[in-house]
Amino acid sequence: MNERHSRVGLVIRYGLLILFALIFLGPFAIQIANSFKTDAAATSNTLALIPHPGTFSAWKQIFGISTAGVTDFPRWLVNSIFVSVVLTISHVGLDSMAGYALARLEFRGRRLVFGFIIATLAVPNVVLLIPQFLVLKQLGLFNTYQGMIIPISVDAAGIYMMRQFFLQVPAALEEAARLDGASIWTTYWRVVLPIVRPGLITLTILSFQGAWNQFAFFLVATISPQYFTLTTGLANVVSGGLSAGNQYPLKLGAALLTTLPVGVLFFIFQKYLNRSRLEGSLK
Amino acid sequence: MTTAPLDSTPSASAATSPLPFLRGATHQRSSATRGHNVFGWLFVSPALAILLIFLVVPIGLALYVSFTDWSGVTSPFGSTVHFVGLANYRALLTQPGLTQSNFGTSIRNNFYYVLFTVPLQTVLALWLAIIVNNRFLKGRGLFRTAFYFPSVTSSVAITVVFIFLFQSGGAVNQILHGLFGINGPNWLYDTRGVFTLILNGLGVHNPPGWANGQFLGVTWWDWLAGPSLGMCVLIIQITWTTSGTFMLMFLASLQNISGEVEEAGAVDGASPWQRFRYVTLPMLRPTLVLVLTLGLISTWQVFDQIVLTGQNNATMTTPAYESYYVSFQDNAFGQGAAIAFMLFLLIVVLTLIQRRFVKEDLTK
User: Fold this and answer.
1) Among A21, A34, A171, whose Cβ lies nearest the Cβ of B27?
2) Per CATH, is B91-363 categorized as 3.30.2310.20?
3) pLDDT at B256
């Protein structure tokens, strides 16, 4: 009886899991299908997963190869790529250096610096939006690429995470390198960094994801469409014509374009991403 | 063992435990100290400088601006900017008017959003983790990936999809009509509160006399209205996007709970529910506290989604959005900064309460 009980339980379990998998992935399926529909079909035949009639017109518009209307999405895509790549490089460089110093270098004031960095983690991001705008404005960086990049070019969570990774490296390794006459820089660059490669990969993915999905800060740091990224550009397009209910294929396609790079990264590096989430060191 | 997941929260560990790096300090040699000093400061100074200039200075500057009538155009230190004392804070807390009622409404909206989202995402995450955790389940990785995927994507992109799904003739309403014959509302534009709708259903249409009193410029009747149907869309959306992340946290600690403990429970003749209630759940408690804490802090900061939906529906604004809107649309940066500081205060107070709760939890 117990066996039959568990078999019924297993069937119910699978049923529920499949139902929830549909709920979690269904919106993406509807999104993809509707980006290949005409405006009319996306409204009248929303649920059809096979576009009929199918069209590439929304995608042509997004990539600027359409005569129907020019959009700024190609420019915003380039902006997103540029800003995300620069931010990722600076996070990986600066966060890991600071993390290493906090984990391994016995400099005066380290405790204070570490306490300060931890304290900044507690400041809610949304509260910083207006303050950051004020400083950008004062420094003449408002509405520039520098202004979009410099203020968020390090992040306290990344420093903390890298520190945790460096703490796991056996100190004996570094001491051996130092005894062989290697400088602190050489020890860091040649000995320690290669060991924390998994940590660097995790930081790279999370930084790219954070920069690519960044919205609130870019919203207050820029005002001209030439500096929009995919997120701010898409928001601009959507809040402009939400009531009309038109151009849904275009908006959904652009949203898909915004989702794809991080989605692909996520599938490739799932192992690293999952682990870092599990460590709970971020957010 | 129970402290492990909490130990990795930065804020909790900083406040409750002696800083762990002191333990590593023993291998230090005095001859190396100078090099350590130079390189230590060299390594942290870029990060430190950026955090100071773009995090500490802004907070100070914004605090100053919250006492002025700066309009965002000229320099906040120019002669056209006037010091107004606490006027911006009074306009929120004590002075009846549009500013106050907008602020009060945004607090009301966000409160119900938190009240529904935090329990929903926590319960769903825990439930998903428990069913995915079954050893005999095939395709576990696949299901885990499916549930986790929404949480890595852009908040703006997801909101666009949900706006599409919940439009008046959209997928959700078509499904509701097809399955139940219900004509769904125009969700994102619907300002009716869920509790009010229930009361209406019970035949109560007019507020009783006491409910006409006001707090923060909002009548008690409106305070008790519950989340609007528009806000419900957001509650569903955030539950959908975040439960995957929290599921992974629960999964991690479920995997730490050894199978032996569960088997011991089974031998004693406990039912699955009893085993869950009396064995698994107490062991998950630290993770549960962590998930609730993270959920509470992040839900009070909801912003990205509101930028896309809030301007069409006054029952979907939040303090974070209100602060942005008042600053950038009304050009009242002093007022906007004051709202930001009120939100800051609210989150700090909630965090302190939580921390107390977590501490108690650890000493138990």
Assistant:
1) A171
2) no
3) 76
A39 min Cα distance to partner chain B (Å): 12
How far apart are alpha carbons A191 and A203 in whole angstroms? Answer: 19
Inform me whether the C-beta atom of residue B4 falls under 8 Å from chain A C-beta atoms: no
Q: In terms of DSSP H, where are the helices of chain B?
A: 4-7, 10-16, 33-51, 57-65, 87-93, 98-132, 140-148, 155-165, 171-180, 194-201, 220-223, 229-256, 259-267, 272-275, 281-299, 304-309, 319-328, 333-363
Cis peptide bond N-terminal to A53, omega within 30: yes
Same domain, A79 and A40: no
CB–CB contact A17 B297 (8 Å)? no
Residue B12 scores a pLDDT above 70:
no
Whether A167 and A255 share a structural domain: yes
The parts of chain A modelled with pLDDT lower than 70 are 1-5, 67-70, 240-245, 272-283
What 3-state class would DSSP assign to A222? coil
ipTM computed for the complex? 0.90
Which H/E stretch holds residue B215?
Answer: strand B214-215
Residue B319 has pLDDT above 90, yes or no: yes
What range does the domain containing A181 cover? 73-279
Buried b (16+ CB within 10 A) or exposed e, B343-360: bbebbeeebeebbeebee
DSSP B293-333: HHHHHHHTT--HHHHHHGGG-GGG--HHHHHHHHHHTT--H
Q: Which of B43, B77, B130, B303 best probes binding to A when mutated, by most A CB atoms within 10 angstroms?
A: B43
Condensed to tens digits (0 to 9), the pLDDT of residues B199-247 reads 999 988 888 888 888 899 899 999 999 999 999 999 999 999 999 999 9
Is the separation of the CB atoms in B234 and B121 below 8 Å?
A: no
**Looking at the structure, do residues A38 and A173 belong to the same domain, yes or no?**
no
The answer to whether residue A199 sits within a structural domain is: yes
Q: What confidence category does residue B25 fall into, taking pLDDT thresholds of 50, 70 and 90?
A: very low
